[in-house]
Design goal:
CATH architecture of the largest domain: 3-Layer(aba) Sandwich
Number of strands: 16
CATH topology of the largest domain: Aspartate Aminotransferase, domain 2
Structural class: alpha/beta
Helix content: 40-55%
CATH class of the largest domain: Alpha Beta
Largest sheet: 8 strands, mixed
Distance between the termini: 26 Å
Number of domains: 3
Shape: globular
Number of helices: 15
Radius of gyration: 24 Å
CATH superfamily of the largest domain: Type I PLP-dependent aspartate aminotransferase-like (Major domain)
Bound molecules: pyridoxal-5'-phosphate
Length: 468
């Protein structure tokens, strides 16, 4: 049962249409309902979900929402209230990843997704890699919990030629984060992270029962001078960082902060989680080495995912660590789901060791630069942003003037047919609705320009809303 008054109003409106209509009639589209009732897409979706649960309507993907023939049950007969009593309280954010996966109408321009679209994926390389993997004997059997040896060695050798690191293969970077938080800390422990930080890391941390704590960052990365005070105040041993292309600010950790950071880790016995999510998209001629490459004593856990540089369905990441931390992670990885599908692992190995891999990365970086230039150009025509405008190769992070609220801007933009991300959930401990994130990953330059135009008109028509 939903309690939100706007959603109840939509349920009432749809209820009247259903009662007056016949089985098989199509209900008005989400966009029509948004316009008629002046509500957000999330509100319409909540109302539709309630009526689907009550078996009064059904949603057919790509066709619409229809009145059901004979309700097999009246909503009043259903009582699942017992579930609420049966479930233990949990820190899991059940709306995650709502803001990343807005079910938008089909003609919506997607400036929200950070995953490169199909035109940036190495389809020919992938097809061949998968065909070869499929033919390999043993591909349909089991794999070791830690991953197949040649792929582990490839990740390890890229970090350090002498292979001090023990690499596990996980189902992408998000799975690696979740694995780390659940295996090397106990519920109630604190994880320090830059503010703002990646929404998925905050969610995984909370889901593991851990408490995220914020440390300031500036245009040189994490404020190492302040990290010590946060460690002192919280007693934390775990620090989650993105030293390269920080998501969402795009900042790199300055070379002069690396040594003090590693010294602090040594002094305080810290475990640093280095989320190197965009290693492959950094320019290889200037790219800094991961912190983990210069870490003989095993303070750093390094995550490198292929889901952006190959394709989102390539759920493969290398999780590198040393010592008992590596043993702990390995045990938990196996407990979780035994092993990552060997066919995916073999495919990933074929892709990254193919002759086309480096060429693909070069082309991808180039196209992303073109798209980002289009995005920067287009937002430059809107006189709205609080400086500075920052971001990585896949997106920009834009500050709004004080009278605008990021969530309201996101909803207004969606009504105009462009999806963006509101930054309010990207703060580990001090939520603010002051920024939006616009991605240049999944749309070509022409669509990016059109999307920003739509955003511009949404901002024009958007009345300032009082905060609070
Ligand atoms: C900073 C960061 N880390 C990790 C991930 C997880 O990505 P994946 O699970 O697709 O590898 C993402 C996804 O966008 C991200 O932005």
């Amino acid at each position: 049962m939903i309690h939100d008054s706007a959603a109840r109003r939509v349920v009432g409106h749809l209820d009247a249409i259903i009662t007056a209509g016949s089985a098989g009639d199509r209900l008005p589209s989400v966009r029509t309902l948004m316009a008629e009732l002046g509500v957000s897409p999330a509100t319409v979706r909540a109302a539709v979900s309630e009526l689907v649960r009550a078996e009064r309507i059904e949603t057919i993907s790509g066709s619409g929402t229809f009145i059901l023939a004979t309700p097999t049950r009246q909503s009043d007969d259903v009582d699942r209230g017992w579930q609420t009593a049966a479930l233990s309280p949990h820190h899991l954010d059940i709306d995650f990843p709502g803001p990343l996966q807005v079910a938008a109408p089909p003609d919506t321009i997607d400036l929200a997704s950070g995953y490169p679209d199909a035109t940036l994926q190495p389809i020919a390389l992938l097809t061949k890699a998968m065909r070869d993997a499929a033919r390999r004997p043993g591909t349909y059997g089991r794999a070791p919990g830690e991953g197949i040896e040649p792929l582990r060695s490839w990740f390890a050798a890229e970090l350090h030629p002498k292979r001090r690191h023990d690499v596990l293969i996980t189902s992408g970077g998000q799975a690696a984060l979740s694995l780390i938080f659940r295996s090397i800390a106990l519920p109630g422990d604190t994880v320090v992270m830059e503010t703002p930080s990646y929404i998925g890391a905050i969610a995984a941390c909370r889901a593991a029962g851990l408490t995220p704590a914020a440390v300031a960052a500036d245009d040189s990365g994490v404020r190492v001078d302040q990290l010590e005070a946060v460690i002192e105040a919280t007693g934390a041993r775990l620090v989650y960082l993105q030293p390269r292309f920080h998501n969402p600010t795009g900042v790199h950790l300055h070379v002069e902060r690396r040594r003090p950071l590693m010294e602090l880790a040594a002094e305080r016995g810290l475990i640093l989680i280095e989320d190197d999510w965009l290693y492959d998209l950094d320019d290889p001629t200037t790219r800094s080495r991961p912190l983990a490459s210069d870490d003989p004593n095993g303070h750093v856990i390094h995550i490198r995912s292929l889901s952006k540089s190959v394709a989102p369905s390539m759920r493969i990441a290398g999780l590198a660590s040393q010592g008992v931390i590596a043993e702990r992670l390995k045990a938990m990885r196996t407990v979780e789901d035994f092993f990552v599908s060997p066919i995916l692992q073999e495919t990933a190995l074929n892709v990254v060791t193919s002759t086309g891999w480096v060429r693909h990365l070069r082309a991808m970086r180039l196209e992303l630069r073109t798209r980002q230039a289009a995005l920067r150009d287009a937002i430059g025509a809107i006189d709205c942003w609080e400086p500075p405008i920052v971001g990585g190769p896949l997106h920009l992070w834009l500050g709004l003037p004080p009278h605008l609220d990021a969530v309201a801007v996101r909803d207004a933009a969606l009504r105009r047919g462009v999806s963006i991300i509101a930054g309010n959930q990207w703060y580990p401990s001090d939520p603010r609705s002051t920024h939006i994130r616009l991605s240049n990953a999944s749309m070509p330059a022409t669509q990016i320009r059109e999307g920003v135009e739509r955003l511009g008109s949404a901002l024009e028509g958007h009345r300032p809303q009082p905060l609070g």
